[in-house]
Structure formats: structure tokens, C-alpha cells
Amino acid sequence: MVDTAIKELVRMIREAQAHDGYLSIHFMVVELGQRFTNLRDFHELYNAGHLIEAALAHNYLYKNDDLLDPMLKYVELLCKRFGRKKGQIPGYPGHPEIELALLRLYHRTRNPKHLELATFFITERGNPAGIGGSHFYRYEAKKRGEAPHVILPYWGQPDALWYYQAHKPIVEQETIEGHSVRAMYLLTAAADLVRLDPTSDGRLKDAIYRLWANMVECKMYVTGGIGAIKQWQGFGLDYFLPQGTDEGGCYSDTCAAIGVMMLAERILQFDVDRRFSDVMELSLYNAVLTAMSHDGTRFSNANQLASSDQDPSKRAEWFPCACCPLNVLRLLGQIGGYVYTQTAEKPHRINVHLYISSTYEFRSGAQLATLCQRSQWPWDGKVDFTLQTQSPLVTVDVALRIPGWATEWKLDPAPPTYAVEKGYIILPADWLSTYRSFSLNVDISPRLVAPHPYTNQDTLAVVRGPVVYCVEDVDNPWVDDHFKSTLLHPSCSFVEKTVTDATTRDTYVALTTDGVSKLDVKHIHACPGVEVREPETQILDKGVITELNFVPYYFKANRGGRGHARVGLRRWY
């Protein structure tokens, strides 16, 4: 049935294509003659990028060019129409996507035109004098008669070039700004360009590192989610990270979290550093997995860390713009590609970034070999590895990520000597020739993390291994304020319990603590200020709660309830 539907879609696409290769139904049916007149706002090139990626996937699966051929014809048209040469359009898409698609296409075809067009779209973006001494988006808007002071609903101010990451060339940008998904797709493409083209602008790699650091250190939630501002579904000021709507924001878009993983995976192709793989794992288990219910029927675009009366913790059956559900399914289908890498710089080293039961096939010398890992990660920190080769000698090293949060870890058997490079322990080939089976055991005991002081949030979040936890009214039925007045003590301890949920049949580790209290907010009055009290004389609502129950953040909104949930709880002094 699926194959039949795909064949029908491919036939329709082939028949719909214009003679010159153009393929965008909106401008072939609805707005005739308006091709490439609003690159900033219409998703003409974005859609072309997804069609290119679909063609590559179709070619890989079905071993024919039925979809790839029309896409190559479309790309040939784009190569003629876009660029800096006379008669070409010196523009670029408002929503990046075609850039990374073109680079994937180049990896398949090795056609220099595909690399050249991708490079142009990435490096021309933000050129203040792109055409006639004017920024291309300003020139384009003026040409179509747009008023100079127009404010689109998702801008917040006129001339919001930052929304599109087009306020400056990427190599000059100091902070990550604008729509978070666009930013991730752009940086993913830039990282892929660095990987594929050694002659690319060296400043591009510096910009990727700089913008990554700004994102992770100043604009990322403890769940690995990004994007505090709902209006433009993107980044706010540094350290502006409210947990929910009634605190001032929090969007944490699903596609953006997937974009974080995509960017990390691309960087890991040329820089094996756990600062990237740690975040990749954090986003996967929290900001990404929370986006789909465990029966696969309900989804979320925004993934707030705290519920409110305006935005209770719940998922929807579908969306008018349903990008996130499909993106989650695509990611899960490709998850094996995030687990291992072998880089061009060190092709004789297998890097293990994620601990997921799987088997990796590679070549040891001229012969096929496998590296197998088995684990119950993230609930159990023990990972068992088995290396199988046809030759008695192993010709590859294996690099295992030691998470930055891990305070204790152990290898069994332990090599007499080993190197650690950027958070990866290197198991040499000669040692692996003797020890084909080995285990890594990482302590995943619960711990508390807090946001940066500049966020002005004196809160604590509970994390176990890579999994962030939250409280939910299903397990704490006394809550009536979305846990806003709940206090968590920094020295609290946790009891762990493996639970198989009766509703979903999912198994996870639940946590319980008695280091908890609650503010008696009914007796706290602001006039407009509140009298300063010593910590030991805080107004506490004694006897209301004696324990607090936590579940994994990704698991929230799966069991009914009233939609009260929260990650960060007020610190109890």
C-alpha cells in the first residue's frame, strides 16, 4: 500500500513539473508569474530543499531515479537563476533548508554546481549590499510594493532581518538570533559545508562554534530545548529563559530541538567533542521525545517546561502546520546515523556518541566487521560492547563518550593505559584485538541542576543520567497552582522505583523525595512589595505535602490529569 502511494506521488510530481524544471504548485496554479518574487516569506526554496531530500531518500530505497531525475532538472534551473552573475538573482531563502539539501545532493552527485549554489546561499545571506547597494530582502520588498514600516505578526518590529538570520553575514554574527528552526537549519548547512569543502571560508567554522556556544550557554533550556519567544518561535535575549506562558514565554519548538541534534551530528563529523554529543543526547531524550505521546497519536509543537492556566500540559491530535510530527518520525527513522561516526580525519576510529542497543557495520582492513552494543540506557548506566572481526587483528580504535555530567564511570576490563580526547576514552586497536567484549558502566544517579544566575530563576531541576524529570498532577494530586509555590530542598535525596505504567505499558524510573515544602501564598501580600523574611521564617504551608513524585519530562501528558506540570521548582532555603 505504501509503495503504491509513493509511486503515485512520484508520478504526479513528474507530470506536474514545468518544461524548464520549475516545480512549486502554488506559483504554477495560484500565483502565476510570481516565481521567486518573495524569497523572504514564501517557502519556495525551502520546499525545493525537502523535495531534493525526498528524492535522495527515494533513490536510496527504491534504487531508481524516478524522483531524482526531476529534482536534478529543478536544481539545474535553480543553478541558472541564482548567483552573483549577470542576470541571476542574488537572493536566498527566508527559511533555510535547501542549503543542506544541496550539500546532501552534492555528496551524492559530486556535481560542483550543487556545491557552488549551496555555498552561495550560505555565504550571501545577510550581505548588506547584496543588490544595487541594498540588502536583498529590502530590495525585494520594495520591488513588490511593500511599505517600509510594515511589521509582520512574527517580527515584533519593522525590518526584522534578524528573524531570518540575515541581519549580518553569518561569519559576522556574534549571537544566535531569530526563528530557532531557521537558525538550526542554516548552521547545520554551514557545518556540512565546512565538512565537505576544505576550501570554504575558515571564518565559517569559527562562527559555528561561536553561535553554538551562545546558544548552549545563554539561550538553551535544561531540557535541550531552544526558543523562549512564542511570537517568532525563536530566541530571546541572553539568559531570557522563562519556563512557561505566565512567566513571560517559553516555546521550545520540537523542530528546533531536532535541528540542535542535526547541527551537533554535522559538527561531530569533523570535531569529535562531547560538548556537542552531550547536548545532542540531552535534546533527544527530553525536548524531542516529549513531542509525541507514547501511543503515537498526539503531538506538541511547543514544549514548555511549566504549565499554566493559559497553556496546560497537553498534546494535540494534529496541527494546521504539521511540521513537527513528521520531523520526529523522520528523526527516529534515522536515529542510527546519530549513534556512530567515522570521520575523514580519523577513518580508522569508530566514535560512539549515543548508547542505544544497536549494531554498527564497518570495514576492518578489507573485511566486514561489526561493533554491537546492548544496554537499557538511559535507565541503566551499563553498556555491553562486542566487537566481531574476521581477522584476529583489529585495525580500528573505538572512542566512547564519557558524558560531562558523569562523576563516576568504569571500564571492564580496564586497559592498562588509555587516552581521553575531548571527553572520549580511546580504546586502541591492539587492546581490542585481545578484548573483543567489554563494558562501560556510568553512574546515572539523580542530581540537581540550576539555570544560570542571570536568568533570575532560583530554581532546581531533577536529572538522572541524560533524562530531565518533571512533576505532574497525576502523581501529585494536591497541586492547584501548576507547582508554582512548590519548594525543593537542594540537599534532598531521591528514592528510585522502576515503574511499568498501567495506561501506556511504558517502563521508566520514577523518583520520589521528601525534601519538599510549599509556600503559603494565600498569606503573602504584595503592597506592592513583600516584607523580606529570613529563610528559616518563610511562610510555609505546613503539612500540605510530605513527598514529591517525579516522572521523566518526556513522559508528561500521557496519563490524563489536569495539565499541571513543571520542571524547575523553587529552591527551598
From TrEMBL:
This is Uncharacterized protein. It comes from Fonsecaea nubica. SUPFAM superfamilies: Six-hairpin glycosidases (SSF48208). Residues 3-335 form the Non-reducing end beta-L-arabinofuranosidase-like GH127 catalytic domain. Signal peptide: none annotated. It comes from the Eukaryota. PANTHER family: DUF1680 DOMAIN PROTEIN (AFU_ORTHOLOGUE AFUA_1G08910) (PTHR43465:SF2). Residues 350-412 form the Non-reducing end beta-L-arabinofuranosidase-like GH127 middle domain. Residues 447-561 form the Non-reducing end beta-L-arabinofuranosidase-like GH127 C-terminal domain. GO terms for biological process: carbohydrate metabolic process. InterPro entries: 6-hairpin_glycosidase_sf (IPR008928), Beta-AFase-like (IPR049174), Beta-AFase-like_GH127_C (IPR049049), Beta-AFase-like_GH127_cat (IPR012878), Beta-AFase-like_GH127_middle (IPR049046).
